[in-house]
Amino acid sequence: MIKQLSLFDIYPNGSPEEIIISDGHLQLYHSIFSDVEASRYYDRLEKEICWQQDSIILFGKSQPLPRLTAWYGDPERSYTYSGIAMEPTPWIPLLQTIKTKAETLAKATFNSVLLNFYRTGTDGVSWHADDEPELKKNYPIASVSFGGTRRFLLKHKTDPTIEKVELILTSGSILLMLGTTQEYWLHQVPKTKKFVEPRINLTFRFIQ
Ligand SMILES: O=C(O)CCC(=O)C(=O)O
Ligand SMILES: [Mn+2]
After folding, report:
1. How many domains, the chain?
2. For a pocket test of ligand 1, which of 84, 116, 128, 200 has the largest count of ligand atoms closer than 8 A to its C-beta?
3. Contact predicate 176/116, CB 8 Å
4. Tens digits of per-residue pLDDT, 89-146?
5. The CATH number of the domain where 173 resides is what?
6. Which keywords belong to this entry (predicted)?
7. What is residue 79's predicted lDDT score, i.e. its pLDDT?
């Protein structure tokens, strides 16, 4: 009889999937939270986070971002994102618990988190790198996902001969973006016409 391999057989003892890319380093921890835990976190984040609808100026016109966002962190760690200056909301216990998990895996401490709420497939985030000057260079970024599964794509900034990387981020996973990943690669969560469940993503960061 052929045994169907589960992700636990492939990545036992909580070890991550190592994604080998040139000029960067990614580690994907599948099911770091159980399905039950992940769905509880999703429900609480949806209710407890102070979600905002931000806009950006595109071709002289104000356009709503295709997602809701929130920014939490240590006091005075303000952050400018797509031209939007965000003052951090103080930490809440729910976020501190998730932060501790991300810090253990990343072997690094974080002082802020950007949250994105993708309500439907028409919400997404376009090509960018988390390389703003206020972020500590080549410092880990931990990306935690709850709710619907979405595609996460990476492409090299300057070498078009390097193949794009596609990851599938499922509920309860943690993706670590390490080393020079932000310096050399862009990433996006593409919009999709397929039905997808709403998704909440948290990226834990370190502001200098
Ligand atoms: O939702 C994701 O997986 C990524 C979000 C992201 O790249 C960002 O907030 O900078
Ligand atoms: Mn990003």
Report:
1. 1
2. 116
3. no
4. 999 999 999 999 999 999 999 999 999 999 999 999 999 999 999 999 999 999 999 9
5. 2.60.120.590
6. Dioxygenase, DNA damage, DNA repair, Iron, Magnesium, Metal-binding, Oxidoreductase, Plasmid
7. 76
What the block records as the tokens of 149 is: 């599964």
Domain range for 42 = 15-52+63-205
Q: What is the total residue count of the chain?
A: 208
Confidence of residue 13 (pLDDT cuts 50, 70, 90): low
Instruction: Assess if residue 88 is contained within a domain.
Output: yes
